[in-house]
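User: I'm writing a short report section on ligand binding and want a predicted complex to refer to. Could you take this sequence and 5-amino-5-deoxy-1-O-phosphono-D-mannitol and write out the structure as C-alpha cells? A short remark afterwards would be nice.
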Amino acid sequence: MKGGYDHFMQKEIHEQPESLLQTMRGRVQFQRPAVGNPYLTPRVKLGGLVEHGATVRRCRRIMLVACGTSFHACLAARKTLEEMCEVPVMLELASDFLDRRCPIFRDDTCVFLSQSGETADTLRSLEYAKAHGALCLGITNTVGSAISRMTHCGVHLNAGYEIGVASTKAYTSQILAVTMMALQLAEDSISKRDRRDSIIDELGQLPGKVRSTLMLDGAMKELAEELRNAHSLLFFGRGYNYATALEAALKAGYWGLHGACGAGLRPRCSLPTIKEVALIHSEGILAGEMKHGPLALVDEHLPIVVIATRDGMYKKMESVIQQLLARNAQLYIVCNENDEGMKQYESRGCKLIQASGKSLS
Ligand code: UD1
Ligand code: M6R
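Assistant: Sure. The C-alpha cells for the complex follow:
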C-alpha cells in the first residue's frame, strides 16, 4: 500500500507529479493553435462548471471558504482568480465566516474547498450560504462527500486518496483547480488571451517541475539536521508565496505550486513536517508586515526561511533579506535554480534552497 515509502504522507508528497496530471486530465487542452485551425487553442474545460459559468461571471463577488491547508490553497490561488475574472475575491476561514454570520447575498458565488468534503465548519458554512441564496460551488477530492453532494456544482480534484492526515497532494491540486476555474471563467476575454495561454503552457510543464523539485528530498536531510534543535522557525513570503509561508510553517514538507521549493525538513522525527508533526513552533509571516512587529524577534539564534523566487515580489524580498541580514539573522533562502542574484548571500552565511523552474509573475 505504501509502495516502498516509509509512510503515507511521504508517498503522497511524491505522488504530486501524477496527482497534478490527474487533476488536469481531460480538462486542459494544451495545444497551440495550428495555422488555419482556430479550434485548437489552449483551453480549460471543467465539466462541472459549464452550466453555471455565466452566473459566476456575473456575480457581485466570489468568496472562497475553507479551513487549514485548504484555506492556504485559497490564498495561493486568489490572485489568479481576481486577475482572470476581474471580480473581487474574498477569503474566509469557515469558522470565522460562521462566527461573524458573514453577510451573504443572492448574487454572491461561494466556493467551498475541502479535501475530505466533510469538514464540519466548511459544511456548516455551505448550509448557511445556501440558505442565503448564494450560488455554491464545491472543490473537493472526495466524490460523494457531503460538500460534493450539497453544492450546486463544482470540481472534483481527482488527486487520488489522501490517507496521510497532513494534507499534501490535495493542496497543490486545490491551487491548480482554482487556477483552472479562473482560466475557464476568462475564456471569452480577448484581453486576457495571451496571459491565459501562457499560464496554460506553464501548467503543461508543472508535473515535470514538481518532479525535479522533489529530487531535493535527499539534500534536505542535511538541512534538517541543522534545524533539529531549533525552538522556533519563521517563514517569510509575499505575493503568491505568502500562502507558501503559511503552509510551510504548518507543514514544511513540500512547498506550493508557485515556484516554491520542495523541502523534506526532518527536524525531530522521521516525518517531513514542522508545526503539525515535528511540533516545533513555527510562523508564516507576510514579508510586507515584517517592519510592523516581527523584526523585533530577529536575532542570530532564530532560523528564518525566506521565499524569494523570481516573481513580481523578487525585489521586495531582496530588501527583506538585506534587512534581516542587518540583524544577523540565520537565513535559508528558497529561490529559483541558478539565481545568480541570490548567490551573493551565500558569502554572507545564508543557505540557498534552489527550486527548479520559472515562477509566475
Ligand atoms: C465527470 C465524471 C467523470 C467523467 C467525466 C467525463 C464523476 C464524478 N465525474 O467529470 O467520471 O470521466 O465527467 O465527461 O462522475 N460537483 C459538485 N460539487 C463538488 C464537485 C463536483 O456539485 O464539490 C458536481 C459537478 O458540478 C458535476 C459533477 O459533480 O456535475 C462531477 O464533477 P467532476 O467530476 O468535477 O466533473 P467532470 O470532470 O466533468
Ligand atoms: O478536508 P479539509 O480540506 O476540509 O480539511 C481542512 C483542514 O482540517 C486540513 O486542511 C488540515 O489543515 C490539514 N490536515 C493540515 O495538513
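A remark for your report: The pocket of 5-amino-5-deoxy-1-O-phosphono-D-mannitol (ligand 2) is lined by residues 67-70, 114-116, 119, 122, 165-167, 251, 276 (CB under 6 Å). The longest strand covers residues 108-114.
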